[in-house]
Every structure is written in structure tokens, then in C-alpha cells.
Design a protein that fits this description.
single chain; alpha+beta; four-stranded mixed beta sheet; two-stranded antiparallel ribbon; 13% strand; rod-shaped
């Protein structure tokens, strides 16, 4: 009896294996399991690839924002270009003080010469043009009162207000500046540094002889007698042709350019929920997915999953429920077919 039952049971199992669990059914079941797994994890990966042609708009499932690297770089570059060039005063010993010393040499040449010929020789040695009118004016200043007057004329020259640069039109750094002034750093009387903004129009270009001559003429007007002015202009030009009064401070300029760029906050682009992230129809052409666009879609997927993980957010809970039902429906369809 037991043997008969065993035979009957074995027959049923064999029948089940041969008629019900056929290879097509087994393969179908395996396919259903695999498809269900894909459905369960499918939203964790992007259904797109770089180089793929996008035919329809891709919409945002949540509102999110991404850093716009290109716009951020553009704004920071604008901050760099808006930074003015920084300058510092040249050593006074080879600029303003040299001019003052040469003017005193001129005074001393007149005071020490007991005749025009001797005076003329001193002037030739210095590369200055002499004339008797100048000599006579100087001889009239040899007393203490005259010396004081000459000193007052020298002190009246606004040498520190003539901002001579090598070439005011030169591009001194990259990117060039859009500022219409330079920023001059000079020592303050009470100590520390003083910052003075000098309009470009107030600069004197060492590369322009006309501008240098104009500067010399302005400075020479502190001497009231016309006989002085040609030689005064010559003395000034001798120095300014060799040495500008203000020098470009490259190190400080580059540091301030970088500081200005660092203060610029990142620029972000916001994508609203249900609005297109990518829209190939906007340009009238189908879109080939680029690396940057793929990264944008990845960021959207990250933000979407992070939103779903919010336990106390009713909207997130609703979206999780909808997502679960969609997955269940997909699994059911796979199992049926």
C-alpha cells in the first residue's frame, strides 16, 4: 500500500514537472523576477546616457537648484576685471627729490658764479640751456631773502600731484581692468597706508613726449619769472623721461583681483517642479545629451531621492505612495505577460 502511494505521489510530481513546470514557464518566472527587480531599483539609475538623442522634454519631479559653473566663472571674471590697477610711489630720491636737488643746483650755479661765462659753463655741464636773463635773475636772489623766495617757489611745485606712469594705455595684467582709475597706495602722515583713486585722465604717460612736456609746463608755473621756466622744464623732463613717479604694483593688484573673485557667491539655477529640465523643442532641434546635461539629470535624480527620504513631509509621503503603486502595477503587468 505504501509502495503504491509512493508510486502515485511520484507520478503526480513527475506529471507536475513535465506538464506544468515546463522550461518556458520556468524561464518566464525567472524573467518576471528579474523584471520585478529592475522595476524596484529602476528609479535609482538614469534611463539616459551621454550621446543619446532626446526627443521629448524631461520634466522636474521636484523643485531643485544646481550651481551654474559657467555663470559663476563669468561673474567672478567680471569681479576681476572691475578691480583697478594698484600703484605705489616710486622712490622719491630718483623722482621728486631729484628734481628739487637739481633746482637747488641751478640756484647754486647762479650764486657761485662771478660772471656769466662761468655760469654758462656750469649749465652746459649739466645739460641745461643758459641765457643772461636767467643769470641776472639768479644773481638777484643770492641774499637770504632771495634764497627764501627760491625755496618757496620749489615748495610750491606740486610734484607729488603729477602721476607719471610708463604707459597709461598698457594692459598690465590679464584680464585687463574696466576701471577708469588707478588705486595709488601711499604712506599716510600718521602712519600706515593711504589709498588714493586717480582718474586715468589725470595720469601722465611716460611714453608720450607731449604729455611729459605738459606736465613740466604745469610744474614750472610756480616760478613767477618767465626767464626761469625753460630751464625748469628741462630739469623736470630730464627726470621724468628716465623714471615714472608711480609704479604698477603687480603683486598687490593680482591679490586684490583674487580677493574680489573669492567674494563672489556661487550662481545657482532653480528648476521648478513640473517644468522642463531639458527641452529639445525650445531650440527647434533634437538634443544630443551632453556630459553637462547628464550631470544635471543626475543632480535632479539625487534631489528627487533625497526628497522622497523625508519622513515628515506629507508631499514626500504622497509621492512615495504613488511611486509604490506604480512599481506594483509594473510588477503585476510583468507577471501577467
Amino acid at each position: 500500500m505504501r509502495q503504491k502511494r509512493a508510486l502515485t505521489s511520484g507520478t503526480r510530481w513527475s506529471y507536475l514537472m513535465s506538464h506544468v513546470l515546463t522550461w518556458p514557464v520556468a524561464v518566464g518566472a525567472l524573467f518576471a523576477v528579474v523584471a520585478s527587480m529592475i522595476a524596484l531599483v529602476g528609479e535609482e539609475t538614469l534611463p539616459y546616457s551621454v550621446g543619446q538623442r532626446i526627443h521629448q522634454p524631461i520634466y522636474a519631479e521636484v523643485t531643485f537648484r544646481v550651481r551654474d559653473a559657467k555663470q559663476t566663472a563669468s561673474v567672478r571674471e567680471a569681479a576681476r576685471t572691475a578691480t583697478p590697477d594698484f600703484f605705489r610711489l616710486a622712490d622719491p630720491a630718483i623722482t621728486t627729490e631729484r628734481i628739487r636737488k637739481d633746482l637747488w643746483r641751478l640756484y647754486q650755479a647762479g650764486a657761485d658764479s662771478d660772471g656769466y661765462e662761468k655760469f654758462n659753463q656750469v649749465m652746459v655741464d649739466q645739460g641745461w640751456e643758459a641765457n643772461e636773463g636767467l643769470y641776472n635773475r639768479l644773481r638777484n636772489l643770492v641774499d637770504e631773502t632771495g634764497r627764501q623766495r627760491f625755496e618757496n617757489w620749489i615748495n610750491g611745485m606740486k610734484l607729488e600731484s603729477e602721476y607719471v606712469v610708463r604707459d597709461k594705455l598698457a594692459e598690465r595684467r590679464k584680464p585687463g581692468t574696466t576701471a577708469r582709475f588707478i588705486r595709488l597706495i601711499r604712506n599716510a602722515k600718521e602712519g600706515g597706508e593711504q589709498v588714493v583713486d586717480i582718474p586715468l585722465n589725470d595720469l601722465v604717460s611716460q611714453a608720450s613726449e607731449k604729455e611729459l612736456e605738459g606736465s613740466a609746463k604745469r610744474l614750472s608755473t610756480s616760478f613767477p619769472y618767465l626767464e626761469f621756466r625753460p630751464v625748469i622744464e628741462t630739469i623736470i623732463l630730464q627726470t621724468l623721461r628716465e623714471q615714472p613717479t608711480v609704479l604698477f604694483d603687480k603683486e598687490r593688484t593680482l591679490a586684490r583681483m583674487q580677493a574680489a573673485a573669492d567674494q563672489v557667491e556661487d550662481v545657482y539655477v532653480t528648476y521648478e517642479k513640473s517644468q522642463p529640465i531639458l527641452n529639445p523643442h525650445a531650440s527647434g532641434e533634437e538634443n544630443i545629451l551632453t556630459n553637462s546635461q547628464y550631470e544635471l539629470l543626475e543632480q535632479h535624480r539625487f534631489e528627487y531621492l533625497r526628497f522622497l527620504a523625508q519622513k515628515d513631509n506629507p508631499e514626500a509621503a504622497k509621492l512615495r505612495k504613488t511611486r509604490f503603486l506604480q512599481r506594483t502595477g509594473m510588477m503585476t503587468l510583468v507577471a501577467i505577460f
